[in-house]
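Try this one yourself first.
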């Protein structure tokens, strides 16, 4: 059996019933690296499935995340979804609010230090970067773009 870890085959491999909204939702999140909110995904999915509800989109996003097909992250503005499920850190632009992927740094020494200091067993950790993205730096002086 040829295993393809993209879309349809992944869903089948995970034993999920493949519904059209679920496939579309997965496609929408994977097609962008902007870490969309449920509302953004809903707007996109609704173009193809006008009768879909925000609640359905949200429920499916959470299920896809629970299955490991998407990553989710709690943000000040609510839950954001990530098509990139590999290990990586994030850079949040404080000017436009966009979240970018940045390569994760495997700082094992940091984990070891924390573990030694607290007695915790550290299984995972993430680093969050904040600042101004390249596009916003170039646009300095102009009014921020609202999304
Ligand atoms: Zn920006
Ligand atoms: Zn990401």
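Now uncover the answer:
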């Amino acid at each position: 059996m040829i295993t393809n870890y993209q879309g349809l085959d992944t869903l089948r491999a995970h034993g999920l019933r493949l519904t059209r909204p679920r496939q579309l939702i997965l496609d929408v999140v994977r097609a962008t690296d902007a870490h969309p909110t449920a509302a953004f995904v809903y707007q996109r999915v609704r173009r193809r499935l006008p009768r879909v509800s925000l609640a359905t989109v949200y429920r499916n996003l959470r299920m896809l995340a629970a299955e490991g097909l998407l990553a989710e992250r709690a943000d000040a503005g609510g839950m954001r979804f990530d098509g990139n499920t590999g290990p990586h850190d994030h850079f949040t632009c404080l000017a436009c609010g966009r979240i970018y992927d940045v390569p994760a740094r495997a700082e094992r020494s940091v984990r070891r230090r924390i573990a030694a200091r607290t007695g915790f067993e550290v299984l995972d950790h993430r680093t969050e970067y904040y600042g101004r993205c390249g596009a916003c730096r170039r646009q300095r002086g102009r009014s921020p773009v609202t999304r």
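Discussion: Confidence is low (pLDDT under 50) at residues 1-5. Residues 93, 95-96, 98, 132-133, 135-136 surround zinc ion (ligand 1) (CB under 6 Å).
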